[in-house]
Amino acid sequence: MNNNNTVKRLVKTAIIAALYAVITLVLAPISYGPIQFRVSEIMVLLAFFDPFYIVGLTLGCFIANILGPNGLADIIFGTLATFISVYAVSITERFVKNKKTSLIIASLWPTIFNGVIIGWMLNYIYQFPLVLSIGEVAIGEFVVVTIVGVPIVRLLQNKYSSFPLFCKN
């Protein structure tokens, strides 16, 4: 890999991380807590198009969680949940061959992993009821990533199919 390509990849990773962190922090009142509508999570669908985005998304989540209100538990478990989610999103296409269906299925992984991991974390930190915490986080994730995110990604993909975000690096 030449230096120019390495610099481009590092810049892309930094931009993705910064966007994720900034969107999360600007919308902090709805990004943290038992019912989360972390709008930045729409970006996890980028990993569906290229696993390269896993690092930037995980780093962005890490930064947002460092600056967020839930402390060390969120830094560790929130970042882990995002990493597992984006990794699962990135490999979905290997197992589901139908393109339209595979994006929808990929969008469900963040709902499952964040629901369970973050729901458990909120139960641990704030003593919220476990099942309720899991359900609230999962519902917020489902709304943001599947109901809002999938149509936005499809719209952008149809309108800007050659846009670099939707192309393999």
Offer a concise description of the structure.
By secondary structure, this protein is mainly alpha-helical.
Detail the topology: elements first, then pairings.
Elements: H1 3-26, H2 28-31, H3 46-49, H4 53-66, H5 71-95, H6 99-126, H7 130-159
Helix pairs in contact: 1-4, 4-5, 5-6, 6-7
**How large, in whole angstroms, is the Cα Rg?**
16 Å
Largest sheet: none
Unreliable stretches covering 5 or more consecutive residues = none
Q: What's the level 1 CATH class? A: Mainly Alpha
Q: Give the amount of beta strand, in percent.
A: under 5%
How far the N terminus sits from the C terminus, by CA atoms, comes to 12 Å
Helix content: over 70%
Mean pLDDT: 93
Structural class computed from helices and strand pairing? mainly alpha
Number of strands: 0
Order of secondary-structure elements: HHHHHHH
The best one-word shape is globular
What do we call the CATH topology?
A: Arp2/3 complex 21 kDa subunit ARPC3
Number of helices: 7
- Tell me the domain tally: 1
What does this structure look like?
The chain is mainly α and about 170 residues long. The chain has one domain: Orthogonal Bundle (Arp2/3 complex 21 kDa subunit ARPC3), CATH 1.10.1760.20. It is built from 7 helices and no strands. Helix 6 packs antiparallel against helix 7. The longest helix is centred in the C-terminal third of the chain and has 30 residues. The radius of gyration is 16 Å and the shape is globular. It starts with a helix and ends in a 10-residue tail after the last helix.
